[in-house]
Amino acid sequence: QVQLVESGGGLVQAGGSLRLSCAASGRTFSNYAMGWFRQAPGKEREFVAAILWNSGSAYYAASVKGRFTISKDNAKNTVYLQMNSLKPEDTAVYYCGAAMMCVPDSLVVVAMYDSWGQGTQVTVSS
Q1: pLDDT tens for residues 35-87?
Q2: Burial status of residue 32 (CB atoms within 10 A of its CB: 0-12, 13-18, 19 or more)
């Protein structure tokens, strides 16, 4: 059974940085894609970034491209989301998800992910 545990959220001023971590366990992830999504109050969960575990190819939402970086540490089975130049509109609960390998266009689809972490709150003050 896949387990995902996020950490690293918190309160930061606009322009600041945070690094989120997602520790994965329960299976071999070489054929998986790992994604970060976020959900603000009253809004749907939206795609932020994803990375293919075997190739390291990364994909980003337009709203975060150039500010956020997704990466992985194979030895630690951990995926990171480095968030720089944070804006108040980045405030949300951030979730880590795992999906069996799929075409890149599908990485933005919530339903493609069959395992999720509990989420970590990110709050950006203006």
Answers
A1: 999 999 999 999 999 999 999 999 999 999 999 999 999 999 999 999 999 99
A2: buried
